[in-house]
Amino acid sequence: MRFGRGMGREIDWMLLSYFLWERVMQDVIVNAQDVCFRDDLGEETKADIAQMFDEYLLEGGDNITAAYEASARLVI
Predict the structure, then answer these.
(1) pTM (2 decimals)?
(2) CB of 45 within 8 A of CB of 53?
(3) 40 phi, psi to nearest 5 deg
(4) 36/67 Cα distance (integer angstroms)
(5) What letter would DSSP give residue 44?
(6) What's the mean pLDDT when you consider all of the chain?
(7) Helix, strand or coil for residue 32?
(8) Does residue 68 contact residue 75 with C-beta atoms inside 8 Å?
(9) Radius of gyration of the chain measured on its C-alpha atoms
(10) CB proximity list for 46: less than 8 A, separation 6 or greater
(11) How far apart are CA 48 and CA 31, in angstroms?
């Protein structure tokens, strides 16, 4: 991760990790809502959304990768 390089600032990895994982959870919620609760989407569209989201989770999408990388820097 390159957050803050050259800016002369200390990175709050706890805060950054929180917001990155929050983003991952937002993705989970939106995809679940689209698949489970949206009556305006057809079954094929819902299946496509579910498939794309499954791949996102399995392959470690950008948001997930960034969240793991930030979390790895935490000293607990």
Answers:
(1) 0.75
(2) no
(3) -80, -5
(4) 26
(5) H
(6) 87
(7) helix
(8) no
(9) 16
(10) 34, 35, 38
(11) 11
Note whether 66 and 1 are within 8 A (CB).
yes
Q: What is the DSSP letter of 39?
A: T
- Give pLDDT, residue 62: 86
Name the burial class of residue 70, with classes exposed (0-12), middle (13-18) and buried (19+) by CB atoms within 10 angstroms of its CB. Answer: buried
**What residues have CB less than 8 Å from 41, skipping those under 6 apart?**
34, 49
Tokens of 34: 């689209």
- Tokens 């009556």: give the residue: 39
Specify whether the backbone of 11 is left (phi greater than 0), alpha (psi in -120 to 50) or beta.
beta
3-state helix, strand, coil in the chain (%, to 5): 70, 0, 30
Per-residue model confidence as pLDDT tens digits over 25-54: 999 899 999 999 999 999 999 999 999 888
Whether the predicted pLDDT of 6 surpasses 80: no
